[in-house]
Amino acid sequence: MFLVLIMFLSSGCARGNKAIQIKGSDTMVNLAEAWTEKFMEKYPESAVAVTGGGSGGGIASLISGTTDIAKASRDMHHKEILLANRRGVYPLELQVASDGVVVVVNPANPINKLTIKELSDIYTRKVKNWRELGGPDRQIVALSRERNSGTHVFFLETVVKLGQKKNPNEFAADVLMMPSSQAVVEEVISNKSAIGYIGLGYLNNRQKALAVGKDKRGPFFLPNIATVKKGEYPISRSLLFYTNGTPEARVQRFIDFVLSPDGQEIVKTMDFVPIK
Amino acid sequence: MKRTTEWIIEKLIFISGIGSIVFVALIFFFLLKEGLSLFASVNVFSFLFGVNWYPISEPPQFGILPLILGSLLVTLGAVVIAVPLGIASALYVAEVAPKWLSEILKSGIELLAAIPSIVLGFIGIATLAPFLKNVFNLPSGLTALAGSIMLAFMAMPTIVSIIEDSINSVPRSYREGSLALGATRWQTIYRVILPAASSGILAAIMLGIGRVIGETMAVLMITGNAAILPTSILQPVRTLTATIAAEMGEAVSGSEHYFALFAIGIVLFVISFIINLVADFFMNRNKKRNKKK
Amino acid sequence: MDKLPIKMKAVDLNAWFSGKQALSKINMDVYSNKVTAVIGPSGCGKSTFVRNLNRLHETIPGATVEGAVFLDEENIFKPRYDLVDLRRRVGMVFQKPTPFPTMSIYENAAAGIKLAGRVPRPVVDQAVETALKQAALWNEVKDCLDKPGIGLSGGQQQRLCIARTLAVRPEVILLDEPCSALDPISTGKIEELIHELKKEYAIVIVTHNMQQAARVADFTGFFLLGELVEFDVTGKIFTAPRDKRTEDYVTGRFG
To answer: Minimal Cα distance from B56: which residue of A?
Structure first.
């Protein structure tokens, strides 16, 4: 019985080796799938498999050798790099696009702009009512992504901890942890008191994006392709690919495509920001 | 020839029987091996009774008391909703509804079981959460109560079909004996049929609890997942299962966080085990009472 | 015969199971303070007949009925007739002993009384004791009234069911093959009991045991294929039947 099981597993691996495996950031799943579609049109003999699981999941897969590319919406942690090196994996980082994390509220909310500090206060629950920010007298419902999300970690480091590595701030325990960007979107649409954050690609006209400024004096910037690309919008980040050392040829061909004008055009159509 | 065949069949059955036990044991040992590694660096007491769950902070905090209480609260709520509703539905289907209607209802209830929990979760986010928010005037409808209601619906098919079966297996003679004494249909149901079906009802409740406490996706989507010590069913909660589901993808294999999630798995395993034990105890007691001379 | 007080009277009674006729045009009387036996081969409709006397027949899905049954000159099939009242006045004991499984001996005997509403405990105690004594069970169970009813022997269980029925103080008792699941000693006890009970009640007993009918019944009706072939005093049925079919059956020439 065990022999059969092992045979199944190993045959599964053997088949998997032919396709390029891309795992990781959920933020990048749709983008990666769009790339894959066009790439396979161009090279019909190739196969690419895209799965989500969060940036951490992708990196964990890279370390355990079960993916060719880990897509990540955050840098690898020092600990992760050490663990990788111990397992004989030497991650190579490559930026493939940029992303702005959009802070959204219900369109009925009169607030239009907030500073990073104010956002941090909201998510640490130092500020609990919209009135304290000049809004209506309603308790703030703060929505976060789950901890498996690269966006969660990025928002934690950039906003909650104010971009300071040693800052002790944390998401307050009663911040609602939403399992997907779609869930954040749904709650913001239906709840006038809610505030949440999502990738630029998820923004639609049923939520209102807030302009964000580094401090009270401003300037405040609305998230869009131009402000993210210029680095004006304060909550923007790089979208990354990690490979184990220099990738083999079939993987390199995919990466070349991603960085080509065609590939970067796709980035634009998926509402992310191209790097070139 | 015949003997050989019998020997082979006997051994095959033996192997499959042992196999299932071996698999459970292997799973449990794997869980133990990974989970217990946590306690090299975190002490058991602060794990079980700690109130802060910050697994990816520096330094991390692994207190799962809010998660345990969250799971228990959601489960308790679901049971309180599902059991009376389940008994009532089962009675209606088995005893009251005309045959054609009860056939339709039965397939309807079974259909409920076929809806994937993630779909129920999305329906819950889009409809139930806003509804609860308005009714109770809450900041957000993503609460333990929303989870309980959703889970109650998911446990209903199990509960209703098992209770219905046990009601139907109450011999007709008991029913007639009661009717012949001048009992009304309702008196017959609650004086004779329900007591006679009680062990089946108990089994249904226990299986329902098992289904509810292990359910993950719907709970992950609709309870808000905030790891706070719940003081009311109208607050968001984070359950044990939702925590594992939400964080396993992020946890680096071999890290403290990863071990902590396996340790949560052990806690879930123990809770389920206790539920089964309690169920067994009650059912056996029932059987003995019936046999006693 | 006509001078005897009539307790129940079936008039042109027809009954069906899902369209299949089980009784056709039954006309038969049940007399006060007499035992009436209903005999006939299996499937002849004798159980269906008694199950119409307390309207239990129609609780089976698909069962229908037509005609009339009078209890003290009131048709029990008339619209809005109180079924609860009917079944308290016309008690029934079944073929298989059916004590309620979750109840003690005491609770079983008191079950019928308690259904009627709140009754003070001493009154229930008294009724239970009287019923158990009437059913000749009191001496055997008086020390273990709180033990489960299904822990008793088959004969005791059946007498418990009789006690349960008696406790409600009915006027008519229907016994549907009450001894077919019992050993000869228990059967003897029940038959003695029937002799005692007819002083107070009208009794109808369904039996496929002709000796039993001969021993306990004052009147006997012979059913065949859903019809009442012959009805007369028991002695006449067994010694000088008018119908050839009755004669064949009572002399054992029937399948």
So the answer is: A147
CATH number of A100-236: 3.40.190.10
Q: Which amino acid is at A216?
A: K
Chain B touched by C153 (CB under 8 Å): no
Report helix angle C121-134 to C154-167, nearest 10.
Answer: 130
The CATH code belonging to domain A5-98+238-269 is 3.40.190.10
Chain C residues whose CB is inside 8 A of the B183 CB are 84, 87, 112, 115
In this predicted structure, what is the pLDDT of residue A141?
A: 92
Q: What is the CATH number of the domain that holds B114?
A: 1.10.3720.10
Assembly ipTM: 0.83
| Residue B105, min C-alpha distance to chain A (Å) | 32
Element (H, E) at B165: helix B144-168
Domain residue limits at B282: 41-292
List where CATH 3.40.190.10 sits in chain A. Answer: 5-98+238-269, 100-236
Would residue B6 count as lying in a domain?
no
Strand A220-221 and strand A211-213: pairing? antiparallel
The tally of domains found in chain B comes to 1
| pLDDT tens, residue by residue, C69-92 | 998 988 988 888 888 889 989 999
